[in-house]
Amino acid sequence: MRAPFLLLLALLAALLAAASGLDLHRLSQPVAGQAFNDADTVDTLREMVRIESISGNELRMSQWLADRLMGAGWDVEQQQVEPSRYNVLAYHPANRHRLKALFSSHIDTVPPFLPFSENAETMFGRGTADAKGSVSAMIHAAESLNSTIAAVEGVIDPTQLGLLFVVGEEVNHIGMRHANELNLHSVEHFVSGEPTESLLAVGHKGMWKFRLEIFGRAAHSGYPHLGESAISPMLDLLRELNTMALPVSDLLGPTTLNIGILGGGVAANVVPDYASAEIMVRVSTNLAEVKTLIERVVRDRATITDLSENEPFICDTIPGFNTTIVAYNTDLPFFEGDHKSYLLGPGSITVAHTDDEQISKRELVDAVGLFRRMAVHMLAQ
Length: 381
Hints:
By secondary structure, this protein is of the alpha+beta class. It contains 10 helices and 20 strands. The chain has 2 domains: 2-204 and 313-379, Zn peptidases (Aminopeptidase), CATH 3.40.630; 206-310, Alpha-Beta Plaits (2-Layer Sandwich). The strands form 6 sheets. It has a 6-stranded mixed sheet. The protein has a 4-stranded antiparallel sheet with strand order 13-15-9-16, covered by helices on one side. It has a 3-stranded antiparallel sheet with strand order 4-5-20. GO terms for molecular function: hydrolase activity; metal ion binding.
């Protein structure tokens, strides 16, 4: 029953969005005699990608962002999450508690760091797509709102849009969890910037990350009968998990399982007394169902330690935007409050986390216009 219910929610969101009569394209255009310099978005991303900000090492990126935003006239708060790790919140002066909408993304990246390079059409390097491209496009969309027809005609108040850039999304969402302490209770619309190929996501899968451990008994490898290998039963168990049937959602597709980290043993000539594996399950139906299925396979063959989890997430939509479904997880489920939630960003997830991470300069610049249209929609409500 869960999958049809999720599909019904998505269709309902689309119908409600269609009821809006705003001409977002016209209202997000510049007033006569002015033009947007969206190409500056490329320069901003270039600077950001040159700064290494692997999860846990985001300090330079946070400081650069804070300086960049303050230089453009924003009031900026740096919220300490852990020593040398800071979220960055930016808002128009005196509007801290009047924020109606937030653009948000993360400034941490997965390892390893990939240095920046580019050609005429494409930018390469860690974070170009996931998700510094979204950060750059969001900044420039927000800073150009004052020049839109919507602002000049009084349809929106651009000062009600804020920016929130967080640490730790790639690991445990610690930045967004701490952002809930910023008392952003006035926010009615929240946009998460992630690589969706510039399509508005209807929803994304949930996640269950857990660790398996097996303990054996060490012995000399010449006398294996005196020991008890922990690795051999771990391999048998992982083989079963990797081939088991997992549930499928009509809306979000199949639940998938990835064995991401495998460890154990100390030397080739020692029977290993310990083995571990960290596993990520992308959940398309619901956590309880998936956990029950996996726990039935594991039984008493290994210990299970929960590391992180959240249910699948259904997003809001906006009329005139093409939509998609994504299989990854985001910060959206971790930002608390009564608000609408949107997911969109330039770049493709298929190159994120790879050695070929990249983003099209054209798509990056076009994303500024998309975020500007989103801002008009949100602030005009």
